[in-house]
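Sequence in, structure out.
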Amino acid sequence: MTDEVVRLERYAGPWEPDDPDANFKAEVADYGRLDPLHTLHGLSAHTGIPVGALARYVLARFATTGSGGLLELGPAMVGRLREPVRRAEADGTDEARLAAYREIAALLGWLGAPLDDPDLYPGP
C-alpha cells in the first residue's frame, strides 16, 4: 500500500436541478467553504496524532458510515424503507410521494419509539 497525496479542492458545481445527486453536490459545495485543516491541526496539537493520520481516520470513518448504517438497520429494514420510495417514483405523482413520506415517517416513528421513551420496553 502506498500513501497517496490528495489535494483538497472546493466544489461549486454546476449540476442540473433534476440531477439525482443534486442534494449531495450541494452539500459538498456547502462544506467545501470550510477549512477542515484548521480543526485537524488543533486536534493534532492536542493529541499528538499527525494531521495526515487524522485526515485518514476522518475519511475512513465517513466512508464507512453507509455500511455501518446498513449493519445497524439490517437489510430487511433498509428494504422496508426503500420500498415506499420505489413505489412512489414508479407512480410518479406527488400524492404517491406524500404517501411514501407518511409510510417512512411511520416506520421511523416505530424505530425511534424506544429512543423517545426509554421505559417503553421494561427491563428484567
